[in-house]
Amino acid sequence: MSATFKTIEEYFRTDRNFVIPNYQRGYKWAVNIADRESAVEKLLRNLIEAYTKNPEQSYFLQGVTVCEDNNDIILIDGQQRTTTLYLLLRCIDIKHIQTIKLRYDIRQKSKDFIENLKKNDFDYSKEPDDDNQDIFYLKKAIEQIDLKLKEFEASGESKEELCKYIVEKVNILYIRIDKEKATKTFSMMNGNKATMLPEELIKAEMLRIISLPDKSKKDVSTSAEENPIELKEIIAEDWEINALRSRYAREWDKWLYWWNKNDVREFFGVKNPMGLLLEYHYIQEKDHSTQTKLEKAMKSFSFDDFKLLLSGKEQTKEHFKKLRNLQKSFEDIFTKPKVHNYLKLSLICSKSLEDKFEIIQYFINTKSEEIMKDYAKWRLVGATHSETISSDDQVRKTKAEEALKSLSQIDVYRGAYDLAAKQLLRLNVEQDNDLGRKFDFSIYQERKSLEHIHPKSKAYHKVVNEDGTSVYKDGNEKEKTLDEIKDPEWLDRDTLTDCSEHSIGNLLLLHKDDNSKFSDNTFEEKKAIYFNIKENFNSRNLLHTISVFAKSKWKKAEIEENQAEFKTLFERDYEITKKDK
Questions:
Q1: What confidence tier does 410 reach under pLDDT thresholds 50, 70, 90?
Q2: Cβ-based neighbours of 311, under 8 Å, separated by 6 or more
Q3: In terms of pTM, does the model score above 0.70?
Q4: Looking at residue 33, what DSSP letter applies?
């Protein structure tokens, strides 16, 4: 990066093209808001006042930021100012713009209009503007400039002398940046509201506000000879603002990069470029003391609503600080293994966007991993957020007792599939917690599957018909002959105690893709597949599942033992005593 002051004559005296790239917004400086001066009118008034006061003193304008690329000067910041100066010189005398190459690439009609202004016979007033906003405001700017110049000449002044003053005495700070930084710098400084996402609009608005000059000081345009100390202060302030804006933009881009990592997006279940950061900050800043207000805050989030928070420069800085802290909190709860694991277990149980917000907010505010562990375990048995954080533990205990009852059914596979999957997930996650490792939840999100350790197609039970006759059926309820079930691999369900091939004692968690590989193979065949490291097997990282396949055999005794062990662990973790049961 380099920066120098150039007179307007030096600025425009070049064979290069001034290029306004297509990612820039259209020309808007001729806009009048609430009958106030447009930026065009204000600039011309300041120039005329400076000239009238002392035409021999130098005058300084705000800077332009450019990228020099071969024969092009790409205007990153300052296109409005450059275009207005071009129009001003044209209004004074068309000859002053004959050699200026201003290439307006935003839209072809705008580009043609700018170029046609060099022609003596071009009547800009007859150019249609109904479908081109740029042309409308370019024409309006010319009208505003013409009016000011007529008033200037009516006072006995010469517009050619004014032109001489502008090109020789008016200076502009020329900031040149490297080519690879050009687009990023533009996104930091500007915002095209017609095409930008709400996240980009919020960024642009925050950067715009923190870039505003201090209202207690004079305009940034001043005379070097008259007050060089003030000019130095203004330039220093300008550089300080640019540095702050650049730092904010770099931070924002880091947040954006983090939220767009696949593992982060999947973990928090978001699609927005900035993830949950802006939305959650907005919700925190709103009054959501009641559930109704929380729902309203979540549904009303938009750029226009968020902008209402940004009431001034200092307030915007404070909100940026809060965003920085919130981003740090998001990164912490995602990065720390146990916090990451307990949070995701809880999020799996969320019932709504409001519930999701309360879960995340709870984990951000909670510092104890033991409290997080308790929170996750109660959510896994169906307790709501308010029930989980309540000081009254009776509701939570009731939920756990009901869950244990469901998990103790003969047919958990068909009667409590989701509950069983969550509890088997919890056991696998706790194994990773013991190792201080983040659990890979991609194995569960939309890909979870409960696998029968002993295949249900090779388990049978006797069914007595109404007429007193009996038949044998397998775990799929298909009739089987005595010859078919004589194979020693077949399991007689009726000999099991309080469980079956469909009970929690014969189920484990698998990745969905791995379930099909197991099919109806025997335990020994499944074990061989599971530990064949030459083959890709997604479920090989599930430590609780591994512990099952580490057994040497899987028969009636192992199913009953696994069932009893599961219930004992559940009772211990949920503090269920015999009295409770």
A1: very high
A2: none
A3: no
A4: S
CB under 8 Å to 479, separation ≥6 — which residues? 471, 472, 473
CA–CA gap between residue 184 and residue 253 (Å, rounded): 9
Angle at the Cα of 516 from the Cα atoms of 510 and 521, rounded to 5 degrees: 95
Which residues pair with residue 474 across a beta bridge?
460
- The whole-number pLDDT of residue 578 equals 64
Quick one: DSSP state of residue 37? Answer: P
The amino acid present at 286, given as its one-letter code, is K
Q: Where are the domains of the chain?
A: 2-190, 192-335, 393-581
Given a cut of 80, whether residue 332 has pLDDT beyond it is: yes
For 49-64, how does the pLDDT look when each residue is reduced to its tens digit (9 = 90+)? Answer: 999 998 988 888 877 8
Q: Tens of pLDDT along 363-387?
A: 999 999 999 999 999 999 999 999 9
The Cα 153–Cα 39 span in angstroms is 21
Q: DSSP secondary structure string, 459-486?
A: EEEEEE-TTS-EEEEETTS-EE-HHHHT
The Cα angle at residue 348 between residues 373 and 529, in degrees rounded to 5: 95
**Which tokens is 465 given?**
């018909």
CB 41 within 8 A of CB 144: yes
User: 3-state SS string over 206-253?
Assistant: HHHHHCCCCCCCCCCCCECCCCHHHHHHHHHHHHHHHHHHHHHHHHHH
